[in-house]
């Protein structure tokens, strides 16, 4: 592996596949006895959805859908 001029390192596909890493995954980084350790930050399904529907009026949408279903 090689460090780019921007300080970036590419994790080889073989290792990304083994660890199930995807674009956008976040990591914690630490140094242990002169060794750099990257630890993936695992997010729950709830964390992934948090904020996705912010500002949406889901209750009204559900009530409207229910109203239309009841009428048909």
- What is the general shape? elongated
Gyration radius, to the nearest Å?
22 Å
Q: Order of strands across the widest beta sheet?
A: 1-2
Main beta-sheet annotation: 2 strands, antiparallel
Counting H and I runs of at least 4 residues, what is the number of helices? 3
User: What is the straight-line distance between the termini?
Assistant: 62 Å
Structural class: alpha+beta
Helix content: 25-40%
Strand content: 15-25%
| Number of strand elements | 2
* Topology order in helix (H) and strand (E) letters: HEEHH
Give the domain tally: 1
**Mean pLDDT score:** 86
Low-confidence stretches: none
Compose a concise summary of this entry.
The chain is of the alpha+beta class and 72 residues long. The protein has 3 helices and 2 strands, in the order αββαα.
Question: Would you write up a description of this structure?
Answer:
With 72 residues, the protein is of the alpha+beta class. The protein has one domain. The chain contains three helices and two strands. A two-stranded antiparallel ribbon has the order 1-2. The model has no long low-confidence stretch (mean pLDDT 86).
């Amino acid at each position: 592996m090689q460090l780019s001029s921007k300080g970036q390192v590419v994790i080889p596909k073989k290792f990304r596949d083994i660890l199930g890493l995807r674009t956008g995954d976040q990591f914690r980084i630490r140094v242990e006895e002169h060794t750099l350790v990257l630890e993936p930050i695992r997010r729950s399904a709830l964390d992934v959805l948090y904020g996705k529907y912010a500002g949406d009026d889901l209750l009204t949408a559900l009530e409207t859908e229910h109203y239309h279903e009841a009428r048909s």
